[in-house]
Amino acid sequence: MIHPMIETASTFQPSLWLRNGHVMTLVPRYWPRTISLAELPHESRLFTTAQETQLLGVCHWQHDRKAAPTVILVHGLEGSSESVYMRGIAVKAYRIGFNIVRMNQRTCGGTEHLTPSLYNSGLSGDYRAIVKELIERDELHHIWLIGYSMGGNLVLKAAGELGATEPALTGVAAVCPNIDPMVCAHALEEPRNWIYHRHFVTGLKSRLRRKATLFPGKWDLSMLDHVATISEFDDRYTARDGGYQNGADYYDRAGARHVLDAISVPTLIITAQDDPFIPYAMFTTPTIQQHKTIRVIAPPYGGHCGFFHRSRNGEDAYWAENRMVEFLRNRT
């Protein structure tokens, strides 16, 4: 069922063989793609967002950074600032005049040593702190947040928490955000999603082992080999590390769904009705449908952050990236 406030994106027309959520999710990740950032100026920067915690950002500044709008990019679960989708949108947004800050979430992108904590879906305070630093230290006054999947939940949550209190926040865009982490975790654990589930659980367990060598005694790893699902990992490790009572408490409190109604800036959500583990029904609620500043584009196809189709109208094949660039350009 198509809801009246949700667009179906007639400009996205994938080939018949791509009209499958799993195929669409996987193909763009393995399709050959050359993305060169060589033409972009490059600066690594550490942002202090909490006690004993720094996040590594890769900044690409325009010649006059104060005069240019700025995009903060946030990756998804087990991604990094070097993820292909992060590099792809960075190049496109820089070319239309934006400063770019490609963030690594806590412990990601080889930054396990920069914080004693794990990353989680509720750490929106990190991105509010980064926005504040860019305003106060760099004197930037037109800042956008863009996130993918888990990063999408984080930027939406940060925008909702800021509400109308930060004039410098200009807009937000999210691709396939997990705005209700419990619903998404249950979907991810369905047998049909075993390939993604195994990838995420294996990555999370490996990361925790690396963290444990840097912070001996902080986590009890005696049961780690027996953890088989992402909800078990989150209940035993992510939730407790993040100060939540348990996994259920973490999943409930970390979701951006609680604060979407407080978002006051132009917001674009791109999701797919066939996303294997971000259920489309989450975006058909009255809070989203009736919101004055949230626009949802939900094609029937697209998979999880895939949105790959035959290039047309001078654009490349990465439809969601191009819609976000269009969104930025039209509101600058």
Beta strand count: 9
Given the structure, what is the number of helices? Answer: 10
Question: Span between N and C termini?
Answer: 34 Å
CATH C-level class is Alpha Beta
Shape: globular
Order of helices and strands: EHEEEHEHEHEHHHHEHEH
Content-based structural category: alpha/beta
How does the major sheet shape up? Answer: 9 strands, mixed
What does this structure look like?
By secondary structure, the chain is an alpha/beta fold. The chain has one domain: Rossmann fold, CATH 3.40.50. It has helices spanning 21-30, 84-95, 124-136, 150-162, 181-188, 194-214, 230-241, 247-254, 286-289, 319-330; strands at residues 6-7, 43-50, 53-60, 70-74, 99-103, 143-148, 169-175, 267-270, 294-297. A nine-stranded mixed beta sheet has the order 1-9-8-7-6-4-5-3-2, with helices on both faces. The model is unreliable at 1-5 (pLDDT under 50).
How are the elements arranged and paired?
Elements: E1 6-7, H1 21-30, E2 43-50, E3 53-60, E4 70-74, H2 84-95, E5 99-103, H3 124-136, E6 143-148, H4 150-162, E7 169-175, H5 181-188, H6 194-214, H7 230-241, H8 247-254, E8 267-270, H9 286-289, E9 294-297, H10 319-330
Parallel strand pairs: 1-9, 4-5, 4-6, 6-7, 7-8, 8-9
Antiparallel strand pairs: 2-3, 3-5
Q: How would you summarize what this structure contains?
A:
The chain has one domain (6-180, 256-330): Rossmann fold, CATH 3.40.50. The chain contains 10 helices and 9 strands. It has helices spanning 21-30, 84-95, 124-136, 150-162, 181-188, 194-214, 230-241, 247-254, 286-289, 319-330, and strands at 6-7, 43-50, 53-60, 70-74, 99-103, 143-148, 169-175, 267-270, 294-297.
